[in-house]
Amino acid sequence: MGKSASRPVIVALALAWSLFFTSVHAADWVLYDDFQNKTVDVYNWKVGFSGPLNGETAVYENFGQLHLLLRAYGDLATDQGTTGADLRTDLRGVSPRGIMADIEVKKYDLTVCPENAQGKVRTRIGAMFFNKGPQVPNSYENNIWASIQLVRYAGSTDAADILTAEMYAFLCADTNCYQGTTLQTLELGKVTVGQKVQLRLEWDPENNRILGQLNENPEQTIAYDFDDTLPPWYPVRTIQLNYSVPNGQCQERPVAFMHSTIQKVWVLY
Questions:
Q1: Separation of alpha carbons 87 and 241, rounded Å
Q2: Local structure of residue 224 (DSSP, 8 states)
């Protein structure tokens, strides 16, 4: 009788504690932008482009969404290698240890030549979290870059409307972080074009790890054994469209295209 009467109380207490810890965890994340302005908030975002512009780009805000569009073409002068670039929306003046975003890839295209069937197109969130040392002034060298991307690779055998959500960490080896070493790549799940998803990227320096999550899928971890006490020379926090389009002369010119919307962004300090 006593045990039976106490059960609802125990259940109620357990639920209360669960809600308490959930709300505390949620409260750690601060809404950074919900894109309710008519134009991109220049106090929150620095918009830019890096790399050769062999196509068109657009960044605009409309009905509570930030739209990012990028179309680029391969180099017709060679059948070797790829051409790549970033359309960047960098968080301005802040260096949170976590970034979380609601993202939808609305459309993509990736056309390649049979003679050079490589390349990719992706939307990603990313950060230069720390520098493993020694720091090199005015350089990304020895920075640790981490990212979660919604990516489509040339040659993928997935259905045409399927993207892969991946988390990876990368040790930069040169000034622009074009060269370096991939520390680890983890698949977080599959995403359908037109599906709104939530990506969470978080640096946990106390436990020497970087965390990533797609929606409510299991959290994934990349551990490292570097000294992480030095800040990165450029503490980038960013949301990007990025492409690597194959070069080549073929009947249909190689092209990479993606249109994505960002609906909300949170940060964790």
A1: 5
A2: -
Specify the CATH number for the domain of residue 61.
Answer: 2.60.120
Question: In the prediction, which pLDDT does 27 show?
Answer: 52
Below-70 pLDDT ranges, the chain: 1-27, 251
- Please give the residue range of the domain that contains residue 94: 31-268
Q: Would you state the pLDDT for residue 81? A: 81
Domain presence at residue 24:
no
- Say what the alpha-carbon torsion angle 135, 141, 146, 148 is, to the nearest 10 degrees: 150
Residues 79 and 60: beta-carbon distance below 8 Å: no
End-to-end CA separation in angstroms for the chain: 49
Please choose, from the candidates 126, 158, 144, the residue with its C-alpha nearest in 3D space to the C-alpha of residue 231: 144
Residue (of 65, 38, 42) closest to 259 by Cα position: 65
Number of structural domains (the chain) is 1
The secondary structure element, H or E, covering residue 102 is strand 98-111
Does residue 210 belong to any structural domain of this protein?
yes
**Model pTM?**
0.87
Note whether residue 95 is domain-resident: yes
